[in-house]
Design brief:
With 308 residues, the protein is mostly beta strands. It has one helix spanning 3-22; strands at 23-25, 36-37, 40-48, 60-66, 69-74, 78-87, 90-101, 117-123, 126-131, 136-140, 146-150, 169-175, 179-184, 195-199, 204-208, 212-220, 223-230, 238-249, 255-264, 274-281, 284-289, 299-306.
Length: 308
Amino acid sequence: MKPCRVYLIFSLIYTISLWSATLKPFTLFDNYTHPQIDSIKILDAKELIPSKKENSLHELSGMVYKNNILYAINDQGRLFRLSLNIQHDTIASLQLNDSFSLRNTKGKLLKHPQQDAEGLAWYNNHLLISFERNPRIVEYSLGGIALHSIKLPKKLRKKRNYQGSNKMLEALAYLPEYGFITAPEKPLKKSKKSLHTLYAEDKIWHFKAQGDITGLEVIDQTKLLILLRHYSFFGKRFTSLVTLYLDRCDKKRVCQTQLLAQLNEKDGWHIDNFEGICKVAPNKYLMVSDDNNSFFQKTLFVLFEIMN
């Protein structure tokens, strides 16, 4: 066998080895590879297994995607830049390019409890990041340097208004008409527990609570995609995907919603702690689970399509 052929075969084996150590197929539902449920179709699911070089690639929450680059943040205040290759409705590859520890406007590293980054959105070629424990929204450069803070509605400024330090500004989206749109994971203490509330600078939207809010993404100028979950180590687990219609609200600002799907563990779904979601193509979205840096949990990437 010619040396060049030996080299090519060896390179292929090595590439496959690296591939299998980084991403591997994951079956979300018993007996089905690509099930369609309600109004979505699951296109692909992969489990991420970070290498030693990528040992900080855990606890992912917010994500945004643009030009084949996926930006993601985690609970430890790190911003990751990854090359995401989607081919034929599959997650073909995911490569970590670099990562940054988030810094304040003076260039100093964020420390606990300042670093608990959760929500992520595009804003004027920069990033908006929302935080728990010290609730705030901050504009960041793509290199993880804080540029300036965004003014929050009064109800969101005080820690005492939230149901807990880990139940604060979990999700974030941006629309030019409204600016930022954010939400606490659970309704505020003095709000109706039966209703979730989304907050913009000078506008609110309510909808029926059905799980805790963990992610927001823009569908179009009048609709948001909301990721909700109920996750406990020993209790029931489900993930819900809901469309909220921003322009279909009553006088009390309670808005029309559509439940697209609920992935419930009791129905045979193998789910984890889904916390982040982003649009990757028209009608196609990617969601990720936060593994809590735990041996018993997984980082799962799930690609799906909204069918109507």
